[in-house]
Amino acid sequence: MNSTMEKQTETMQMKDQFFGEISKENSKECAIMGLIKNQKMVLEEELSEAKLRYADVALEDENWSGKYERKMTCKILEGQIVILSKLQHDFECMMSPSMTMA
Fold first, then answer.
1. Structure confidence by residue, pLDDT tens digits, 67-87
2. Label partner for 31 (CA 20 to 30 A): which of 42, 45, 86, 90?
3. Can you tell me the distance from the alpha carbon of 33 to that of 92, in angstroms, rounded to the nearest whole number?
4. Which of 42, 73, 80 is nearest to 57 (CA)?
């Protein structure tokens, strides 16, 4: 969990470094993006741990049901990360200024 907080702090520092402070009118959008990014980080850490658990059980020839359960856990976490990545991309596209307006 510490690495999640460190990544979150680094992200916020980089945001302030390049873009300055966030205006109040954009705070809701930034909060949504922050939630999505934080949840992705949490899921990525869970996926890393799930893959290690899957690797451990995969070495046991007799434990096919445990292997299947842990593989499905990995697939579910990967799917959740993909969904959040798509939401993040879609929100970023909606929030960025249109290039055609220039």
1. 999 999 999 999 999 999 999
2. 45
3. 8
4. 73
What are the pLDDT digits (tens) for 11-59? 555 454 445 555 565 788 888 899 999 999 999 999 999 999 999 999 9
Tokens of 31: 């909060």
As a whole number of Å, the end-to-end CA separation of the chain is: 43
Sequence length of the chain is 102
Structure tokens, 47: 């996926």
Structure tokens at 28: 């809701």
Burial of 11 from C-beta contacts in 10 A (0-12 / 13-18 / 19+): middle
For residues 81 and 88, what is the distance between their CA atoms, to the nearest angstrom?
10
Cα dihedral 18, 23, 25, 29 sign: positive
Q: Which two tokens stand for residue 96?
A: 């960025």
